[in-house]
Amino acid sequence: MFAWTEWPGAGRGHPQSALPRVCPVTAELVPKAVAAVAPAAPSAPPTSQQWGSFTDFTLSQVSQELAARFAHSKKTVPHYVLSVEVELTAMLALRSQLNATLLAGKKDKEAADVITISVHDMLVKAAALAMKQVPDVNASWMDTFIRRYDQVDINLIMSTGEDSVSPVIRDVAAKGLSTLAKETAQCEHVLFDASTNQPAVDMNTGTFSIHNLGQYGVKAVSPIVLPPQACALGLGAISDTVLPNYDNNDKDSDKVYRVAPVVVATLSCDHRVVDGAVGAQWLAAFKQLVENPLAMMVM
Fold first, then answer.
1. Is 159 helix (H, G, I), strand (E, B) or coil?
2. Would you name the residues annotated as active-site residues?
3. Residue 264 has what pLDDT?
4. What is the pLDDT of residues 83-126, one digit of tens each?
5. How many CA atoms lie within 13 A of 102 on its CB side?
């Protein structure tokens, strides 16, 4: 992912005179240097005479706190990202079979009340199981040590149109897909329907976050890590993609390529906790589970 490059004029074969002169730092230069990089004082809010008409929107306390945490993370956490294309052919087929089983024997009215399993639910489950295979990702930076968690609690980053929220689903790896679908649906119902009389949604911090922007047609997203978590997963839109045809059961096939549904999964990592090799191992485990979803049924 990273490529080391040489600074101009500093590589082998360049004369010493090509290097910039270094000015020694003295006590009288320090205040000037600090003043040069000090942030400018905040200016007064623009008025209608400056920018014309505008509308101000009040942010909820939850949105303000989430924004502050993301801003602090972007400034202090050494982020890096890894991306991989994941094929969904097998997962979509399994989802159809599971939902057919859930709806079997149900009449129209009963079927309408059944909460079916979504692709998102299956991707969340795969992420949790990948944590069990690569547990170093399910961790936090604690300044003088790293804390690794046994339970996988996942924050689902959502937008209600007015606020951004992060409800948490607890112990995802231990839950079945049907239970996970019901809990996710309950979070959405409570958050998006103000008239509902449901218990409050758990808004505490989990051990991992998922940002799914696929419904907006976004190809890929590089999320900001939510402290004190070490990683966050970004999911883009499902798109038909041309792939090499590696069908071992049809070696005589003249089809060199095939078209399959693919999603781009991007893992943002805190480099203090998760180095590139561990992040790559987690993405490989996630990809393996998604492309062979029957494995999730026996884990």
1. strand
2. 271, 275
3. 97
4. 999 999 999 999 999 999 999 878 777 777 888 999 999 999 99
5. 19
